[in-house]
Fold these 4 entries.
Entry 1:
Amino acid sequence: MSVRELVVLGTASQVPTRHRNHNGYLLRWDGQGLLFDPGEGTQRQMLRAGVAAHDIDRICVTHFHGDHSLGLAGVIQRINLDQVPHPVTAHYPASGQRFFERLRYATAYRETVKLTESPVAADGPLAVTDTFTLDAYRLSHPVESYGYRLTEPDGRRILPGKLAAHGIKGPDVGRIQREGVLDGVTLDEVSEIRRGQRFAFVMDTRLCEGVHALAEGADMLVIESTFLDEDVRLATDHGHLTAGQAASVARDAGVRHLVLTHFSQRYSDPAEFERQARAAGFDGELSIAQDLMRVPIPKRT
């Protein structure tokens, strides 16, 4: 059975709190697992969330600030300790190669798993699989940072009424799907395009072109909202977004489900992020991320 969901492992920015671990997010996508920004403590959060090392096929790091990457050492060593039976690919900004190498070999351990390093150096596709294309876009932060976007290929939705109108039934349904035409009736006449699902992951950044490119038409957008709107100057100075800015991006991009995360420890009321997101005009599904929550990708319309 295919599962598409986001497992939130941590939601704090810079400093963890009593209730929020450093960042960490696992996207389950039809048997593939993409681990985004494993901060310190991610390995323990995986245990608490029921996420195994075997669930990880790709690791995607947006940038090399500690709250987004210090958990790499433990996660990589756990992958090897558990002898994950499949290769794992790691994506991260190419400018941080030295940081990745230090974290990968932070202590002694026995390597049992093939870990392929695939640094990101420019906007564009990183991987193409049968079920998705993974792209990266440059963000605006004091250190080089990239966001990630997963796009499912468009498919076809068969229209039973159109099949019946043309007298197509039984084995002929499969035949027209395979061959594209049957007795002069084309597949286009009995089906319509089924838009592929899209997932976007945007961490530490100011507003920039990359943010909008990543968010465009996303079924789910996971995006940082470190600050509340009254602290917009702090957000801009430190390369971050406010709740209102993140929600405005989602509103303009036609996002279906917005997940706000990466909250500054200075705020004690998470509900204020929701209030400001709604005030910005976003009227889709909205989740204020909490550690260990699971958020399903919206069903296709």
Note: The chain has a mean pLDDT of 96.
Entry 2:
Amino acid sequence: MKLLVTGGAGFIGSAVVRLAVARGHHVINLDALTYAACLENVANVSGSDRYAFEHVDIRDRASLDRVFSQHRPDAVMHLAAESHVDRSIDGPGDFIETNITGTFNMLEAARRYWSDQGKPATFRFHHISTDEVFGSLPNDPSVKFTETTPYDPRSPYSASKASSDHLVRAWHETYGLPVVLSNCSNNYGPFHFPEKLIPVIILNALAGAKLPIYGDGSNIRDWLYVEDHADALLLVLEKGVSGRSYNIGGENECSNLDLVKTLCAILDQKKPKPSGSYADQITFVTDRPGHDARYAIDPTRIRTELGWRPSVSVQQGLEKTVQWYLDHEDWWRALQTRTGVGQRLGVKA
């Protein structure tokens, strides 16, 4: 297929681009190259004749129309979004403009293109979202998010993503646009932007800085290795039923405190300190407003309908991730310098 991937220079989007090109798809990577984007994330496919890059902002409708007309994609994978909860609390405006208005522009550009092509049933608009739209769960392992869980967003970020989900469903119901949706749990892995929890812990540990944990660290997340997620997204695009949504989880629930302790133990093994443990650097900080207690996904639908399950356990994934950051200091140091993120508290979890 020829895929138009928005946000393909970001963390999850670049994993999709790399995997799609490796599998023989043609990919148009559309990205505005805001602070969290990095073309180094797709450097290993940038020379392929199956890859093209468009420096376009999804808020620019005229440019979107031009991209659709010029490249004539078979499907859209819409990942472009502002995604950092802390930033949405400090400045929600960009989240409203990009996640809501930007998605509206994408839907309208896709609908125009789809209509001009004679409304082919094979076209797909895959909207990639988050489990955070469902709100917070009690600390009860039997209770998990399903595709029918009512929406209950608690932050400007999750509210903006919930709004975009509703727009996608409305364009399907009102105009017949063939769409699929997916809501994922917390991703981690290579090329993760250095303001998110796992890279913050790894890089602060290496720098001898404090390892900040919100509250008492009891908040629980379901962790999904990003390359597993990319595999699931392509499967949903190719095999998912139009109009249907699929929850994608890692089946790896873990509290923030346990996660950080695991990272410290891995670092102790891979790059020991002269004395003591990296866990000695753990520091508890004031909790952020509206911090959801627990996220957990019930992946029954994608497992039973599409036959997908994650292949990487959280222990395996964290070991791979730590090793990647140890091996790619040039990548994260350059990104820290360019963006000014440095060792700062930036915790999506």
Note: Residues 210 and 274 are 17 Å apart (CA to CA).
Entry 3:
Amino acid sequence: MTASPIQTGLLAYGMSGQIFQAPFVAAHPGFALRAVTERHQQRAAQDYPTIQSYPSVEALLADPELELVIVNTPSNTHVDLATQALLAGKHVLVEKPVAITTPELEGLLELAQRQGRHFLAYQNRRWDSDFQAVRAVVESGQLGKLHEVHFRYDRFRTPLNAKKFKEEPGPGAGLFYDLGPHLLDQAISLFGAPLSCTKTLTSHRPYSRVDDYFHLHLRYPEGLEVFLTSGLLVAQPSPAFVLHGTRGSFSKMRSDAQEAQLQAGMRPTEPGYGQEAPEHAGRLTLAAPGTDNLTTTSYPGLTSNYLELFEAVFQTIRHDAPYPIRKEQLLQQLALLEQPAS
């Protein structure tokens, strides 16, 4: 018997709702895009004519048909809104950061268990094509024993963000809580929890009141050193991924095409969606067996699709399959987000 589509609601229809959420809920046959919260302009129906627009979160949560709520609101509201959704008997999919502190996350996980509902994290950057290439290279073993790894996520944005919650000092504000969860999730998914971490947070933009640069040094067993870096004043980005091992190295620029394609109106089911341009291929340098002779080759870009994340959500809710972004990984991420800077 075919499982019925999961009746799904969005808590906002800004950029996140329009670009990263609604297109995938609408495209996946296991979901039905049922509802959205829109307090002012009702724009979602222009893109999805059958959607129900509610004037408040409370009204949306009162919909008895709704099964899954996607919490895609400002980060400082995630805990409160996820709590409301769980208490209303809904499954929740929460954007990063899922919480600001470890006690908050533990409380949400316990509440979900008591309610018999799933609390799931939306970590879409695991399904970026560039990171998928990194994962493939690491798992192939071609680089030998890894000893040094760099992940970067850089931008050049001098003006302060118009979204004030990202620029006002307070819990969850600043670049580290904005982009740190992406880099931390990628590192933890590949290497697990580190033995120790050294963190640097600072600010460089004029008039900035929050951190706009961070650097983490994660130390792992057997001498593996992992460095996670992000800044908002990087005009000429370095490769986003650099890995060095005993048999060679791999480097790759940030090259996932999905966000740009979605902003241009492309749907995730269209031909060519998620396909990298050939010129964005990575560089793989390997030593010939038993020698120091090095050969560099192009590592073709991969095709990736955030629909895979929604497939995982569907399988978890409908068939109780293990969700790839595990609870212990979220707790490891929060521990590193909370750790004081040096």
Note: The first helix runs from residue 15 to 27.
Entry 4:
Amino acid sequence: MRAHLGDRLVIDSPTTGVTGRDGEIVGLRHEDGTPPYDVRWSDTDEVTLVFPGPDAHVRHTEPGAAGGSSPPGAGGTAAPHPAVAPHPADIGRRLAVERRRRGLSREETAHRARISPAYLAYLEEQPADPSAATLLALAAALGTTATALRGADVDLPPGQGHALPHPRLRELDPQECRRLLSTHGVGRVAVSAPDGHPAVVPVNYDVLGDAIVYRTAPDAVPAAAVGTEVAFEVDHVDEAMSEGWSVLAVGPAGVVADPEVVRGLARRAHTTPWAGGERDMWVSIRPTRLTGRRITPADRQPRAQD
């Protein structure tokens, strides 16, 4: 008997031949895939070390079940899909981003989810679709939800979770606001559009010294910020923990005219604009007012990063 990570171990009833129990193989003890195996049982979600008997067999991942054939040492079984199934690689990308955001190594995350680090590496690096039980375990290990890891909530506005029973709203000082702005990301700029109506537009931004910069097209709405005082906002919502923060920067906006500075901004840009297209006009906002707020549980002691 040989198995890959993500295969299912099926135990049949010795009298009827009907499946009596099954589970996902989440850990191998031997590189050649021979027993014993760490199995997460579908009926209890518990992980146990199993030495398969004569009534057990391995159900291998079918080619194409997770967007392609599973290479040796990795595999997956399908969990219930949302109405629009995500690309198999999306789960791995979300896993990796969430793990890094929380400062966890693969080993720490795998230990929390009770799977092998090799299996987590495969999930992050290859198109794979873990079982519902493993996805739930990974979500719990990362303090998020299986729905979020699958991306089934991408079309929902953030903040639909329940409020904390005893929330604490805290004002942030300018230093903490600058730290949360970090070096780059996606924020929203509030401008008066050319048609005279107010508009709030998301932009990919960077931080250069004391200035917030973003690039746009001369005829795009974000370009209307030039020559006016604007508001720029970034935030983060942790749905699983019902926590979050926001930072608001207010100040005059101007176009970056120095060709050398423009070339430097283009070279150091962390990403191309998500909206695509030619966007070679850079706008700079120099905040004269920087404020922020954070929501946490009332019984949590403030930390440096809070």
Note: The chain has seven helices and 13 strands.
